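QA checklist item 7 of 12: single-chain prediction sanity check.
[x] sequence parsed
[x] length recorded as 216
[x] structure emitted
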Amino acid sequence: MLIKTIFFDLDGVVIDSEKLHLRALGLTLEKNDILFQHTILDGFVGRSDKSFFQYVYENIDDRIDIEDFLKQKDILFDGLLSELQFVEGFTDFMHVVKEANVQTALVTSSSLQTVNKGDRVLHFLQSFDIVITEDDTTKHKPHPDPYLLALERSVADKEATIIIEDSINGIIAGKAAGCIVCGVTTSFDGATLKNAGADFVFDSYKDLITKFCCFK
């Protein structure tokens, strides 16, 4: 199998930010005295902030202003950005990928504004040939539209493309787009990722480097 293109999710795959996003979402509700079960946050790993507040509006408190809550969340997330780090092993893996002249794309459910905020801290955008954000499609993961757009813009062969994802919704989207999907266990355990449809599961980029070398 010759891999020519790799699509990366952002949160939990490139940067270790999932927990920061979830914390900011929860803090937004707490700031507005909205009572909620913290376990609901786990269901929004890999999903857009807007989908979370839409869920809150429909199921918890229909008095909230979704657009206002999105702005509040962004401010709270900004206050957590100093804690942002790369997922362990990502930079080493990307070095191997670039040496192999493999095309890369970032495909995320985060907004371009949020992506740029993270990039100002860690400067990761320079690693990608193409960037797809929440702003580029009307349907988001678990719909395949973001990955289908990435395939179109990169003129990539889906049979020679692998997707690296950490979430259930991301894996579902990647498989629906017809690509090979590798699940990384930064947000969910291996069994959960396999059940979601991941073709391969790895616990570290060190493991994936070994597998990637077999693909070349």
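[x] summary fact logged: The first strand starts at residue 5 and ends at 8.
[ ] second reviewer sign-off
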